Amino acid sequence: MLLAACGGSDGNSDTPGSSSGSTSSASSVTAPGGEGSTSSATSHSSLNASSAFSEPASSSSSSGGTESSLSSAAASSATSISRHILFDDFSYSSSNQMPTNGWYVRSGGGGPGVSGASWSRDYVTFLADPTDSSNRLMRMRASTEGSGATTIQSQVTHNGNYLRGTYAARMYFYNDPVSGTDGDQIVETFYTITPLNFSMDPDYSEIDFEYLANGGWGQSKPTMFLTTWETYQPDPWLADNIHTPIVADHAGWRTLVIQVDEDEVRYYIDGALRATHGGKYYPETPMSINFNIWFIEEGLINSTSQRVYQQDVDWVYFADQDILDTREVEAQVEQLRQDGVSFRSDRD
Ligand SMILES: [Ca+2]
Question: Side-chain half-sphere of 145: how many Cα atoms within 13 Å?
Answer without folding.
Answer: 5
